[in-house]
Specification:
Elements: E1 3-16, E2 19-32, E3 36-40, H1 47-54, E4 62-67, E5 70-71, H2 77-87, E6 88-91, H3 103-112, H4 117-122, H5 124-137, H6 153-165, E7 171-175, H7 183-200, E8 203-207, H8 211-216, E9 219-224, E10 227-233
Parallel strand pairs: 3-8, 3-9, 6-7, 7-8
Antiparallel strand pairs: 1-2, 1-4, 4-5, 9-10
């Protein structure tokens, strides 16, 4: 399968009191088309940081991130944003919806961020129909005019998933997508994500502390001390495992 995202010797330091604190210490990783990957490891090991770097939300301190073989480090900020809008969708633990907008408006907004005003304006009618179709797909068409304060946690996450799908991304990067939900609601959200993967062929990359969810993915990537410690096949596919899955995460 073709690699959509690649990290090559990716390192990330954070400044604390004038001192550089290394979080990622040389990550090499490929994310391929149509696969499901879980990123596991103890808290503070760098899973979310790696997800944000792969998603072009922040740059590495050193190393390279490639999207479909193109090194995005050489691109302008505007070009990186364009690549991100085209290829990558995000699902976060805490939804990140805008409180004053309806569910429908939150879904549409994802396409307009970073675009010239008139380009977005031309698509306004089509965008509304597509957003309604996506809300229907995630079971929330009847709540399209409700604001976040009027929605349950599961409904908020469904809106966030519809928003992430709006630009038809090749890959969904999910950071603990069920971590803020009760067990039954969280399971329904995960079933929805895997159904989207099965129907659309969308690549899923999921940061999780849940061993069962990790094994449900085709590949389990374990981080330790800022590095990839191991890769293993999960129940969802054959992967390219270099260690046993037992004990993950």
């Amino acid at each position: 399968m073709t690699a959509i995202l690649e990290a090559r010797d990716v390192r990330r330091d954070f400044k604390l009191g004038g001192q550089a604190i290394p979080v990622l210490k040389g990550i090499d990783l490929e994310i391929r088309e149509r696969e499901t990957v879980s990123l596991v490891g103890k808290s503070g090991v760098g899973k979310t940081t790696l997800l944000q770097i792969l998603g072009l939300l922040e740059p590495p301190t050193s190393g390279h991130v490639l999207v479909r073989g193109q090194d995005v480090g050489s691109l302008s900020r505007a070009k990186r944003a364009e690549v991100r809008r085209k290829e990558i969708g995000f699902v976060f633990q805490f939804y990140h919806l805008i409180a004053d907008l309806t569910a429908l408006e939150n879904v549409v907004l994802s396409r307009r961020i970073g675009e010239p005003f008139f380009s977005a304006l031309k698509r306004r009618g089509d965008e509304k129909h597509r957003a309604l179709a996506l809300l229907e797909r995630v079971g929330l068409a009847h709540r399209s005019r409700h604001r976040p304060s009027q929605l349950s946690g599961g409904e908020l996450q469904r809106v966030a998933i519809a928003r992430a799908l709006f630009a038809e991304p090749s890959v969904l990067l999910c950071d603990e997508p069920s971590g803020n939900l009760d067990g039954e609601t969280g399971a329904a959200i995960l079933d929805l994500l895997f159904r989207i993967h099965a129907e659309d062929g969308t690549t899923l990359v999921i940061v999780t502390h849940d061993p069962e969810l990790a094994r449900r993915c085709g590949r389990v990537v374990r981080l330790r001390d800022g590095r990839v410690e191991s890769e293993a096949a999960g129940a969802g596919g054959n992967g390219r495992g270099r260690s046993a899955v037992a004990g993950a995460p």
